[in-house]
Amino acid sequence: ALLLPVLVMLVFGIITFGRAYFAKVELASAVREGARAAALGKSNGDAVAATVTAGSGLGIGSGNVQVLASCPPGADTAARVRATYDLTYNIPLVSSGTKTLTATGTMRCGV
pTM for the whole thing? Predict the structure, then answer.
């Protein structure tokens, strides 16, 4: 009976870590797709849409995505896209709250 609370905290901690890891990988993949769209010379709106579509598993919206740098024609720079996601967690007997995850994708223009 004394071990049950410790085991419950451990199990919920492992589950929460798995959810956070999934969210970080999904967010990184989404901003990579958005940066690719921006690097190919598409509009900022298209880059945001590509990021939102690629991150649909998280449900990120266009308000969470920023195009930091886009690629004008003939530029030899890099496109950069940043997105954020608020991960809500709850570990019984320990803590609960929200952690903001941020990812930035960078891709050389014209790739």
Answer: 0.87
